[in-house]
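Page header: ASSEMBLY MODEL / two components / 300 residues total.
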Amino acid sequence: MTDPEILRYTRETGDFSQLIASIPYADHIGLQCDRFGDDLIFRLPAKEQNLGNPILPAIHGGVIGGFMELSAAIYLMLAQETNRMPRIVNFSLDYLRAGLNQETYAECQLTRQGNRVANVMITAWQKSRSRPIATARAHFLLEG
Amino acid sequence: MNDKIRADRVTRFIQSLNQARELGVTVAGTTESSLTLCLPYSNQIIGNPDTGVIHGGAITTLMDTTSGSVMICALDIFELCPTLDLRVDYMRPAEPGKPVYARAEIYRMTRNIIFTRCEAYQEGGETVANCVATFMRIGPEALPKAYRDKITGDVL
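Prediction written out in full:
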C-alpha cells in the first residue's frame, strides 16, 4: 500500500475521496476527511450499520475505535511524506460518553515521532469539541 | 445456565448490535466465565488492499464485542455494560482469507466494574492481538424490560 499516485493527488488537492475509496474498511464504516489549511478533520457520518447499543442507540465502541485508529494512520501517512500505511503496534482507548447516532469527528496530534515509532493522540467528539466522546493513543511502527 | 443457554443469549445480544451483524460475528463457544466469538473474513473489512489483511478496527470491534458480551455468560441476569476503556496490542497481521476468533474472560468482577482480557487468534493458534478492557456495571434496570426479556429468551 498505498498507491503513490493517489497519495500525491490527495496531498496536492486535499481531496481524500480516492484515498478513502482505496481502503475497503474506510468505506465500510463511511470515514471521510477534510483538510483545512494543514489541519485534517476526520468525519464519520451517522450510519445505521455502525450502531452497537440498540436502546440508546449508540455507535458500536469498536467502530469508534476503528474510526480513530484509521484516522491516526491516515494522518500519520500524510504528515510523514511516506507512501506506506504505518503499522499499528497498539491502541489505548478511553470511552468518555456514548457516541450517539450522529456525525462524529476526530482530530489527531503527533505527540512524538522517533526514528521507528510514532505516538499519536486522537480525540473524537460529536456536537461539541469541548465534550469529547473518546480519546485514544496509538503507537505506530514507521518502517518494516 | 448451561452452554446452550449462554450461547443463545449471547447470539441474541450480538444479533441486536447492527455492526456485529454487519460483520457476521457468531458465537464459537462459551463457559461460565469465558466467551469465544468468530469474525469471518470478508472483503469489506480489508485495511490493506495489496495484501488483503483486515483492518485493526474490525479486530477492535470483534474484541470489544467479545469482551462486552462475556458478562452475559457470567451473570444470570442480563446486564449491558458500557466499555470504559480498552487497550489492544497487535501481535501480527491476521492471515487473509481466514476467520479470526476472540476469546474473552473475566478476571475480576466487582459491584461496579468488570475487568476482562481477550485474545484474538486464528486457526493454528497464532495470536493476532491481545486486549484488556474494563466495563461499567450500570445494572439490569438501566435497560427496558422488553429488551432484557428478548435477550434472556423469556419472551420471544
